[in-house]
Amino acid sequence: MLRNGHAAAAPCDCDDLRLGDLARATPSPVWASAAPDPMLARRPGRRVVLARWMGPLLLVVVSACASVRRRPVVTSPHATAPKPAPTAVATPAPPELSFEERLAREVANLRGLPLRRPLVVRRLDEPDFLERIRGQPAAPAAIATYVAFGSMWIDPKGPTATLSSANLGVFDFTTHELLLRRELDEHAARGVLVHEIGHALQDESFGMPPAAEDDRALAIKCLYEGDATLLREIDAGAQEGQSPGDRIAKAIWVVRTNTRELLARSLGVPAEASDHPRFGEMLATYLDGMIFAAALWQNGGFANVDRAYARLPESTEQVLHPEKYVASEAPIVVDAPATPRGHTTLAVGTMGELRTRLLLARCSKTPAVGGWGWGGDRFVVSEGKDKQLALSWRTVWDTEGDAMRFETALRWVSTHCWPSVKRGGWWIGPHESIARAGTRVEVQRGL
């Protein structure tokens, strides 16, 4: 997980979760939001192998390498004749490297990036850890946006306790420190450390994730988290004698053939965290991000992943469809809808393909086929009388068939699970209108 490198509209840091690696199996049912084939939807009676995700979790103690001074050889100032060479005084051996330092060197070698400065690891009690990872309060525009879209809400005081309770480790790009919960034992901590050391290497070679608007910021976070997750999986496979190619192929298969809800539940993520409305978005930065990074890695190793930091993904569409990133297929430019008469504009932004899929998957937990073929979108959230919000959302699709599927899926969501929400003093009513014309679908909500 990374800190201080997230989207303005997604301020919650949810880095290394209570998840294990993809190596060991338990039976489970099927689905993944990023599955490219609708045939991967749930099938009665089908069972797949679900392995522990994201590596064994590790508890680390801060360690520092003590400086070593050589003991000087002193000769008498009164010596008048040459004397036999003094017996060499043994230089004290440098202290043995700590587990964290050894692992940092190992991970840097595996990733092919230099470790230019000592790794700083801080072990904190839970209250101090949660306080350190708490982000800045959400901006009013962000709160209004999540209220307008129904169930994706933000705690105005920062990351919610439910999501923070799932965090085990975080690399802070501002202080260049790796923070871990004190209660983690050494057996559990390797996976967390490998992932966070990956972020430390990103920090040294590529810097903090740059600021960007909503969907592009989420896409960039997918690259950073996906790269670190890919590294973690390759390391976990090496510990079990698996080749990197076999390990990553298995990891991708597990992600694509299991529901995100099931992955979280089976791997011990606290229920209050996995039920959080924004959990799917956060989890996607690991899972879809790993598949994106793996697609680059499979065509040139980590050197090809490195090149993505010089040409960052422009949208979550490019993350979900790596071939569109390779082809530099940018989103379709969409003009923002007009602000309704009598309203004041609070936020203008882009949902993007990933968040659109998550919105459509809200009811059924099945693949969001209505999100396939996303071309571009733009929304406006505005405020009317008595802090009543209105949402105007304009979307463009690759084909008319894609637009029809989205329209059908969104009508189902609006009927069954798009409730009126009130938060931060704002509220939005359940009334909406959906209209399609060719490849365009427009939504008005709350008016």
Helix and strand layout, with pairings?
Blueprint: E1 2-3, E2 25-28, E3 48-51, H1 99-111, E4 121-124, H2 126-133, H3 140-148, H4 161-164, E5 169-172, E6 177-181, H5 186-206, H6 214-239, H7 244-256, H8 260-266, H9 271-274, H10 279-297, H11 301-308, H12 316-320, H13 322-326, E7 344-349, H14 352-360, E8 374-383, E9 389-397, H15 400-416, E10 421-423, E11 426-428, E12 432-437, E13 440-445
Parallel strand pairs: 1-5, 4-6
Antiparallel strand pairs: 2-3, 5-6, 7-8, 8-9, 9-13, 10-11, 12-13
Helix pairs in contact: 1-5, 5-6, 6-7, 6-10, 10-11
What brief labels describe this structure?
5-stranded antiparallel beta sheet, 447 residues, 2 domains, alpha+beta, 38% helix
Can you give me a brief rundown of this structure?
This protein has 447 residues and is an alpha+beta fold.
Task: Walk me through this protein's architecture.
With 447 residues, the protein is of the alpha+beta class. It folds into two domains: 270 residues, no CATH class; 102 residues, no CATH class. It is 38% helix and 15% strand. The chain is built from 15 helices and 13 strands. A five-stranded antiparallel sheet has the order 7-8-9-13-12, covered by helices on one side. A four-stranded mixed sheet has the order 1-5-6-4.
